[in-house]
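Q: What changes when iron/sulfur cluster is included in the input?
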Amino acid sequence: MSLTHYIAVVRKKRLPFWQQSKLLTIGNDLQSLPTEQLWQLHDELVRLLHTNKSEEKQTPRQEGQSSLFDLKLELVRRIYRACTLCPCLCQVDRLSGEVGRCGLAGNAWMFREGLLVSEEPFVIPTHEIFLSGCNMRCKFCQAWEGVVQTQVGIEFTTSRFAQLVEIRKRQGAVNVHFVGGEPTVNLLSILEGLRALEIDMPLVWNTNLFVTDEAMKLLDGIVDLFIADFKFSNDDCAKRVSGVKNYVATVQRNLVKASQVSSLVVRHLVMPEHIECCLEPVARWVAENLPNVTFHLMLNYVPEWKAWNEPNLCRRLTDTEKRKAREIVNAVGLKKVLTS
Ligand code: SF4
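A: The predicted holo structure follows.
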């Protein structure tokens, strides 16, 4: 879908997906239905959402009716009872206070928030909301203080979120932009916050995409622009640097899905000593599989957190490495490249 959908939403030519989902209605009492039936209904409505190129067939919700958005919320609540939002598959009951690898129970915390102008040109000025908790443990994590400890900053509540969105919108924000950590591990709080909002700004999801197929299905019809990291192109590097298994197949599957259902930008932060093993195959794969997607080559790696103890990660890129990275990206035939 390239950036077409996202740009149309910014220009007010289309409603954001998360608002379209509120207009697709169903009459059922969702809580009484078995989960399997909810998924069937969900998938049918998402298909309908994508075939409705305009919002013409959607009708305002009547009193007592549920929507696709409500259905997603109900499914997420059920998943939180035995969490499988990401491939860690912790199966903990987050609504009873149990925490999995991401360190989160039911509530979300904002460790940073503001209007930023230092991101990709088409997303700025952007209202970024950094939520704590992450399912990956990248040794170079630049947000580790808000990621490793989860109850930092202020608690994310529906009313606080609505106030902040209003303030940043008045200041010129063109979107609402969730960052982590990993926003997907906070999906329930985010959906609860969005449910009460009536604005028509696009939703940007700044994500590691290390999430399950079910989570991707729930994000389909909610997210208007994925800004997705593709960090490693082999599972050994992913395990060694970020502590996760089966990384490559999971992220490649989710990148393809994201490109089919929403707008997408792929980011790759070039790490020292990971140019041949990671950058080159990542860039080649994106060129071959996602030819219309914008690829953001990030040459601004700074060692943080545990990277200081790793011989290969404890320094910035050299000028030679940066030149090599640019050459690789040009050579593999990527059509749309941003560099920072
Ligand atoms: S989102 Fe958190 S609790 Fe759920 S499976 Fe992933 S790491 Fe575990």
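Observations recorded in class: The pocket of iron/sulfur cluster is lined by residues 83-86, 88-90, 92, 100-102, 104, 135, 185 (CB under 6 Å).
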